[in-house]
Design goal:
eight-stranded antiparallel β-sheet; 19% helix; Alpha-D-Glucose-1,6-Bisphosphate, Chain A, domain 4; alpha+beta
């Protein structure tokens, strides 16, 4: 299992009021946590594929419900996490691909000072089973990167991947 910070390069076009465009390079931090499991990729995917069922396998995530009874496999569906009757987070499904064993979502109500937080969880075949990758990209100041790494990378992604490892290493 590892956690790596990788700055991702992308190009951003800036349009001025004089209608001339200039281009500048922007660094988007990428959060990455992975684990390799001794199990068939489809077996792992069957556990984690439910956008509305994260709490069923992740020990630190509160239960969620789909807004407006949306289909949890349809892009645009929003899940909300509720603690003591209060909505504490909302996330919108961007993509759900059973064949590719992946889904992506955007964090809508962000507790940290970042924008455009897009996360992806995927299961890929590996020589001795499969690898589960949980990644995210976002816009944020350099000084927030360690906070995001800890809050999401270590306390959410890594804890969830460790729970999967514990669950499937026992079989």
């Amino acid at each position: 299992m590892n956690g790596i910070y990788v700055p991702t390069r992308c190009t951003s076009s800036l349009v001025s009021t004089s209608h001339h465009a200039s281009t500048r390079e922007v660094l988007m931090p990428t959060l990455l946590r992975t684990t390799t499991l001794p199990a068939d990729p489809d077996q792992i995917w069957s556990v984690i594929k439910g956008f509305d069922e994260l709490a069923s396998w992740h020990p630190r995530v509160p239960p969620s419900e789909m807004e407006e009874n949306a289909d949890p496999t349809t892009p645009g569906a929003v899940r909300r996490f509720i603690v003591d009757g209060n909505v504490v987070a909302r996330e919108e499904l961007i993509e759900h691909d059973d064949r590719g064993r992946t889904y992506s979502y955007e964090v809508l109500d962000q507790p940290l000072p970042v924008d455009n937080y897009i996360a992806r969880i995927e299961v890929v075949p590996a020589p001795d089973g499969c690898e589960v990758r949980w990644t995210a990209t976002y816009d944020g100041a350099d000084d927030i990167i360690p906070v995001v790494e800890n809050a999401f990378g270590d306390n959410v992604y890594l804890v969830g991947l460790d729970a999967l490892r514990d669950r499937f290493d026992r079989r």
